[in-house]
Amino acid sequence: MSHETRPEPGARAQGTWRRLPAGVWTLGFVSLLMDTSSEMIHSLLPVYLVTALGTSALAVGLIEGVAEATAAITKIFSGALSDWLGQRKWLAAAGYGLAALTKPIFPLATSFGWVVAARFIDRVGKGIRGAPRDALVADITPPGLRGASFGLRQALDTVGAFLGPALATFLMWLTANQFRATFWIAVIPAFLSVGLIAFAVREPERPERAPEAKLPLSRAQLARLGAGYWWIVAIAALFTLARFSEAFLVLKAQAIGLPLMLVPGVMVLMSAAYALSAYPAGLLADRMDRFKPLALGLVLLIAADILLARTTGVVGLAAGVSLWGLHMGFTQGLFAALIADAAPPDLRGTAFGMFNLVTGAALLAASLVAGELWDMVGPAGTFFAGATFSLVTLAGLGRVRRVLSN
After folding, report:
1. Rounded distance, CA 320 to CA 307, Å?
2. Is the dihedral of CA 296, 300, 302, 303 positive or negative?
3. What's the distance, CA 52 to chain centroid?
4. HEC sequence for the chain
5. How far apart are CA 373 and CA 382, in angstroms?
6. What is the C-alpha to C-alpha distance for residues 75 and 50, in angstroms, rounded to an integer?
7. What is the dihedral of CA 166, 71, 255, 383, to 10 degrees?
8. Nearest 5°: phi and psi at 33?
9. Distance from the CA of 101 to the CA of which of 13, 308, 315, 355 falls in 20 to 30 A?
């Protein structure tokens, strides 16, 4: 399935982080700053929409699903364009810049429509940067360190997702629940992120484009991605149906009566578990079959869903949210490493873009179903449905592993 040979085994865990390219660290801190900004806003947004603007849980699911699907659709074009132009850094920088420019819209918004528009444009920025950035990580990383590199970038990204809600919680306490004041402060790290990628990231020389791939997203390009790549995309889409938006973790916290000021703490806890597990999971995946950590991630998701479906207290909520974060750490970076292994070097942007398009569409469907179940039968129905899809995905993962090993 791979177009490059991955050394067996990889480098030992001790000192591996020192061998990772400087560009991976820099891109990780770029992600950290932008995610700090984004999560300061997004950790409050579901509650803001429901309590301040009176929207339904279904509307939250629709907004989150459409926003993420928009990002996914944009990624396929930006990824393919980065392959065609032979330039990834400046496309990624443009995406970060667009996201930064949308941040002031949230505190300035005076209606539901403005909030939705800001969320939509912010996700367009995410879509523009995502595939070129991931392809750039793959370009600058040796094959035997890809699991660790994607795990590190994801861990630093998730530290931002930890800091954002933590800062939001503190600022909501400091300002007596003033949403707009918190949103204004979130503007600062977003613009710092843009400056860092613009001035501190260097792009390596790219291989020559294949002669048959003169235009982005041509049929010849998609055929060159190979059957192994498409099997990985298929199982990732099935997995995404089981993993609906984290906005429903926030709504679960509200449903059990957690004080408004403490609601962003749900995302703090989830992100902490995610950040602490992403890099170790990447190291593990460089030393064994990548599908084994993925299977563990699915087991963790099943446990999280069952616990969140049944709990009515803060302790159960904390345990379920922690398991959810651990499942993210054991899956998200590993899917990126699998895509990097399977795709030809000159089509990595296209490969990551198509991967995100398919999984984004699945996330839209998952979030809509989750929102509808929440409104019809309550939180238990949403989380039990997630556990059911996770069991189906776990069975499918074994099937894909057997196909790719033949």
Report:
1. 5
2. positive
3. 27
4. CCCCCCCCCCCCCCCHHHHCCHHHHHHHHHHHHHHHHHHHHHCCHHHHHHHHCCCCHHHHHHHHHHHHHHHHHHHHHHHHHHHHHCCCHHHHHHHHHHHHHHCCHHHHCCCHHHHHHHHHHHHHHHHHHHHHHHHHHHHHCCHHHHHHHHHHHHHHHHHHHHHHHHHHHHHHHHCCCCHHHHHHHCHHHHHHHHHHHHHHCCCCCCCCCCCCCCCCCCHHHHHHCHHHHHHHHHHHHHHHHHCCCCHHHHHHHHHCCCCHHHCCHHHHHHHHHHHHHHHHHHHHHCCCCCHHHHHHHHHHHHHHHHHHHHCCCHHHHHHHHHHHHHHHHCCHHHHHHHHHHHCCHHHHHHHHHHHHHHHHHHHHHHHHHHHHHHHHHCHHHHHHHHHHHHHHHHHHHHHHHHHHHC
5. 5
6. 29
7. -120
8. -65, -45
9. 355
The residue whose two tokens read 């939705």 is 116
Pairwise CA distance, residues 55 & 1, whole Å = 46
267-306 tens-digit pLDDT? 778 888 988 888 888 888 788 777 888 889 999 999 999 9
**Residue 271 identity (one-letter amino acid):** S
Q: Give me the CATH number covering residue 243.
A: 1.20.1250.20
* Domain span including residue 146: 19-202+219-405
Looking at the structure of the chain, the number of domains it has is 1
Segments of the chain with pLDDT less than 70:
1-17, 46, 49-62, 64-65, 68-69, 72, 111, 206-218, 406
To the nearest 10°, report the CA torsion of 9, 13, 17, 23: 20
Residue 213 covered by a domain: no
Cα separation, 54 vs 204, whole angstroms: 49
1 domain residue, yes or no: no
Tokens in use for 253?
């916290």
Structure tokens at 25: 């660290």
**What does the pLDDT read at residue 211?**
47
Residue 214 in domain = no
